[in-house]
Write a structure and sequence with these properties.
Layout (H helix, E strand, L loop, with lengths): L1 H23 L14 H26 L7 H27 L8 H21 L4
Helix pairs in contact: 1-2, 1-3, 2-3, 3-4
Length: 131
């Protein structure tokens, strides 16, 4: 199941590069999407960076999970928490850039990433790293 995080991670990284390329085609236009400090432009930039960063986090989890003792429940929480957070954060950023009220959906990526991060960190501190 950890292969989900590795594959999804690399897909998110690639999508982050692609969306950054698309955004980069227009960044020279000073007033594009309302200017540099506009809500829409900031959220699109955040979403593109979140895709790359959370993609890397999913790959890092996939590589390190085999060295941390996780219960079956914790394992599933981490796999799906990191995956859901990785997909939903850039998605909610893009939706919020499109329609500002969509910002109320940020609880989805935040809750899933916090759950996975706390679960994985506590398992690491409880059991340590195995060779």
């Amino acid at each position: 199941m950890i292969a989900l995080n590795a594959g999804l991670g690399w897909l998110l990284i690639t999508l982050g590069f692609a969306s950054g390329t698309l955004i980069g085609l227009f960044f020279h236009r000073e007033n594009w999407l309302g200017g540099y400090d506009s809500w829409r432009r900031r959220l699109l930039r955040l979403g593109h960076i979140a895709a790359v960063a959370l993609g890397m986090l999913n790959v890092l989890f996939a590589l390190s999970a085999r060295h941390v003792q996780l219960s079956a429940t914790d394992h599933v929480l981490c796999i799906y928490g990191f995956a859901l957070g990785g997909v939903s954060m850039p998605t909610v950023c893009a939706l919020s850039a499109w329609r500002k009220p969509m910002r109320h959906l940020f609880f989805i990526p935040v809750a899933s990433l916090l759950t996975a991060g706390i679960t994985f960190s506590s398992a690491l501190f409880r059991g340590g790293i195995t060779p």
